[in-house]
Amino acid sequence: QVQLVESGGKLVQVGDSLRLSCAASGGSFSTYTMGWFRQAPGKEREFVAAIQWNGNAAYYGGSVQGRFTISRENAKQTMYLQMNNLKPEDTAIYYCAEQTGPYGGRRLGPINYSTWGQGTQVTVSS
């Protein structure tokens, strides 16, 4: 059973950059497409970004396109989310998730992900 642990969330100022990490253990990380999601208070969980199991393709939600970059290091079983030009609306708990089933493709909704981390809080202050 894979376990996912996010880290890197903190309080930052508008325009700052931040990098989140997601460390995986106990599974076959290199064969799974991974995603980042976020959830703000009172809102539904939102797709942020996903990266194909081999790193050959990445997908982004419209609100973060051009500002966030997803990456992964399979040898380290770690995924990253580089967030630049942060805005107050980026404030949320950020979750990493493993897609259901190996060698998956462009499946972006939360329902397609079956293993989740505990989340890390990102707060962007104006």
Would you identify the regions where 5 or more consecutive residues have pLDDT less than 50?
Answer: none
Decide which structural class fits the backbone. Answer: mainly beta
Mean pLDDT: 96
Shape: globular
Task: Calculate Rg over CA atoms.
Answer: 13 Å
Q: Report the strand count.
A: 11
Q: How far is the first residue's CA from the last residue's CA?
A: 40 Å
Kindly estimate the percentage of residues that lie in beta strands according to DSSP: over 45%
Order of H and E elements: EEEEEEEEEEE
Secondary structure: helix percent: under 10%
Largest sheet descriptor: 7 strands, mixed
If helices are DSSP runs of H or I spanning 4 or more residues, what is the number of helices?
A: 0
Q: How would you characterize this protein structure?
A:
- By secondary structure, this protein is mostly beta strands.
- 0% of the residues lie in helices and 48% in strands.
- The chain has no helices and 11 strands.
- It has strands at 3-7, 11-13, 18-25, 34-39, 46-51, 58-60, 68-73, 78-83, 92-99, 113-116, 120-125.
- The strands form 2 sheets. Strands 2, 4, 5, 6, 9, 10 and 11 form a 7-stranded mixed sheet that branches. The protein has a 4-stranded antiparallel sheet with strand order 1-3-8-7, with no helix packed on it.
- The mean pLDDT is 96.
Write the layout of secondary structure elements.
Layout: E1 3-7, E2 11-13, E3 18-25, E4 34-39, E5 46-51, E6 58-60, E7 68-73, E8 78-83, E9 92-99, E10 113-116, E11 120-125
Parallel strand pairs: 2-11
Antiparallel strand pairs: 1-3, 3-8, 4-5, 4-9, 5-6, 7-8, 9-10, 9-11
